[in-house]
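Bug #77: duplicate submission created two jobs. Keeping one. Sequence:
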Amino acid sequence: MARFSKNSLYLALLLVAAACLRLYHIRFGEPFLYHPDEIKLVAQAGRLLSSHFTDVSAYFAIGVYPPFFTYLLTLPIGLYIVWNFLTGRFATTADVTQFYNLSPFPFFLISRLLVAFMGVLSVWLLYRLVKRLYSERVAWIASVLLAFNFLHIQQSHYATVDLPASLFALLAVSSAVSLLEKPRPLHYVTSALFAAMALATKFSLFFAVAPALYAHLCHAKDSGWSWKNIFNRRLFLLAATLVIAFLLFCPLFVLDFSQTRQGLQGTGQFEKEGKLGSGGSLLSYWTGDQSEGFGVFYPNDFLDTLGPVLMAITLIGLFLMVRRHRRADLLLLSFTLLTYFMFEYVAYKAIRHLLPIVPFLMVAAALALESMAVRLSRQAERRNAVLLGMVLALAVAQAGRSCRYFNGLAKPDPRTISRTWILQNIPAHSRIMTESFPPALPNCRDARPDSSRCYHLSSLKLTSRRLNLTPEFISALRDSGAQYYLADGFSRVFFDWKHSYKKYPQVVQERKQFFAWLEANAKRLRTFTPANPRLQPEIVVYQLPVFDGGAD
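Kept job's structure:
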């Protein structure tokens, strides 16, 4: 009992530390929203709530996007709305809409808190899973490494699908472990349910069911290889539950099969081609030979997120798991390696896509650390001291990386500072052309009560792969009647990446030519420089020349 209480206390302390790191500067950007994916997901949850889930068009408002996470977001957002009705802050649904238009940040903060909770829950689940598969020591090491893991902490701050999808994949693997231990129908059902949740949250996680299939094949082998033992009722139960649950969690196929199919085809084509500059070489997730990302998407590879030491230890652990190929190892590898190689194949390289395999990479690192400690010392006390020292050193390094990152992200953003300057110095109703990541300026097209000072805004799509010639951009400025131009550093960084030059040299050349034209012909009014250009963009305010009848 004393040992149980002691372990429980240590685990509680670990979860508190994990929570503190995931809540640290979680209000970054307030009151503005500087993660583009958050904006569409929280807005989608609002659409579903306002339509009471009955409007088919609301399900496709952001295209064919896996909807399960937005369903989850409606729960805390709905409770927040109900609470405000009960306390008298809201009297009608129009009050809710007006409040969201004026100050949407509370809705996003609630959504971020939900994801942060999921991140902490993942640490607890990994501890329980690894303890069953390996040992209590390995469970402690793996859960500590995950609790302090930079990438996991980073994504736990964002109201996006990557962390929730990772949690559901972890739950699917945990159920597969139960299935490996005993092939009960309940374990087949739960494995399929959680795999369906993962798939309905992120369409690329179809390998979340692989561990359950592996566990099923293990039992078929134990019973004697035969088609009857493989294709039995329990496999049918797994498949049927997976399909039915997926259609419930993601009803897009039922609501409009044709539109969903076309949307998935477009997504597949996008994954093959990637965004401008998003490519990478073979094993670029490990070597860093791909775009480094920017802002909330930085850094963008394991070399930067894990650090060279932890990355090397993780690779050693993966090698050990493959080499000894025990059932526990193969069950984890069935999801980890299949998912990794799938994303290695696609052109769009984003480290957040690999977040679901991070818990299992930490298991590999834990196994490697344990093996290294045994080799370094045969004496138990010394071995434990060495192991504790290595784990603490890695954890402190990752925690420090996380704190420095969010310290930088929480600094006053040039977009926020430039917004204040623009409102004070640029006349209302001026026509302003922006790039892809501008300040949040009031748009005269928005019927908002706070728009006493607004601007006519339009945007140039500079970061597309399309080859637009410089005269086309100049014509767009002239035709829009733009008087001012806002350049941002995040839009410009696309054209400094190696793989932008490599795959789209003409596009890069034309964009650079347009930037040079802008600098030569427009008047630079003010430059707002960030403390760290990787985390926040430089904003430059230009006053455009008065155009004559033709483009220069």
